[in-house]
Amino acid sequence: MVTLRLVLLLLLLTIAQIDCKPPASTIKRQRQKGISGVRRSGASSHFQSHGGGVASGHHELNLTDALLDDDYNFDDDDLTEGDDVTDDGVTYEDDDDVTTDDDVRDDGLDAVVEGLEAAPPSTPTSPPTTQSTVAEEESTTEDETTTTEQSILETREDASPIPAEGLTDTFIIGEMMKGYDPRVRPASWDNTTQQQITGPVNVEVNMLIRSISKIDNVNMEYSVQLTFRESWYDPRLRYNYGVSTPDFVIMDQDTKVWMPDSFFQNEKQAHRHIIDKPNVLIRVYRYGMILYSVRLSLVLSCPMRLQNYPMDIQTCLIDVASYAYTDKDINYSWKEISPVQQKDGLNTSLPSFKLEAVKTDYCTSNTNTGTYSCLRTQLVLKRQFSYYLLQLYIPSSMLVIVSWVSFWLDRSAVPARVTLGVTTLLTMTTQASGINAKLPPVAYIKAIDVWIGACLTFIFGALLEFALVTFLAGRNEQKKKKTTDNGLLEANECGVWIPKNALERAERAEKQRLEAIAARPGPLTRWWRRNSAARDTSLQCDFFSRIMFPLLFIFFNILYWTHYQYPDLDKHANATAKP
Fold this sequence. Notes:
It is a multi-pass membrane protein. The chain is an alpha+beta fold.
């Protein structure tokens, strides 16, 4: 019985020492007496394994403190290093070494024993000892470096534990998609305050124009290849795992997340590029922003105004809007910095156009189903004039000049003048047909129509001038013949009329002519001859055409180029100068 009481007393004293942490002097005295914390801990553990519990020991501690008036005291000879302490229990060589002070303590120990025997067993838990605590403090630095990943906590409530291989994109995406419904659009999010607000989802758009090709004047369409990018916030996809959290993860295109239903309003044909892999990027940032990027080839309609063709400036549009969501659900906006980017050399790589400017605008539209937010890109394209200058204007001008050669030919060279006029006219007509075949049939007059019409007019005018000269020359010949054969009279050098054929002999076929009396011509005769030659209207017509046709063509060119080219350049410069 005394041995049992001694064991219980040692157990209670050990628990009291752990909870109350005795002063350093007491610990020093215990070490000097050869009683180590490990032995006391072993004795305590041995007692717990025999039905005792730490919880019941702590429960009875207050009763023991109330029964004991003084702190526990041991004599130097009570316990020595020679005492046997084994795993099977605590054995002391002399039971009389430890005695109680008075009967009150014996009664208190009896009450403690009865309470311990009546207490239900509990799960044994080894309390930390003084040496184990010191060891933990010494290994704190090593624990921090080896358990960094284990100490990172996720912000999601339904988060799974971080796998042993660490944070991976697959793990993060799997955690984000728990309970995610891609059919429901995200709530509006204020990135500045990091709070949810009321209103539509703000979708920020920017694009990179890679190439522009096949600008078709007949069908009024053009082909463009671009990289289309959208970004918006989805608070449901936020993630945070501490310092080791990646800035973003890349999702596969098969991953179902909510996306705006954007479409191109003036699109005729379109396709995505899938060689070598689908050219699609879905990037989710840790703070909930989603970046969607896709490479597209589009055939877009471009209504053209061809009044100034081929010196025209066309504005082709790229309109982006939502098909189902109104402006109460989605609000499109351009990216503040570089909303539309261009590939290097794009403005000079077009075969027949030059990209003068790229502008951005808004095109919100009202329909029967609601108001829809819309973004517009304006591509200002100026037609390259050098091609048409070499292929149309210079050749047609040369044809007009060649038609003027007939003015310098003799009026009697009828075959040459006719061939020259007809050939130039047919050549100009063929050239005009080739130009009009590249243009759509429109109801208004184009600049090229004015030029071709003027050239045809000048060439046809030269042909008509030859016909007029031939007519006037024939009429003059008839007048001269009528004058010489009138009344068988001829004026002599003196201006006196004498009979030319006074008699006709029936037996002879020829007429008898009288020789003109030789005389020196007078001043009146010389004036008459000069005026008769000057009054040859056919020669006057050729002389007049040699001067007037070039002057009229030069005057037409001044009016033509001033009206069609320079006002358009000034107007375009003023339009681009506006903010």
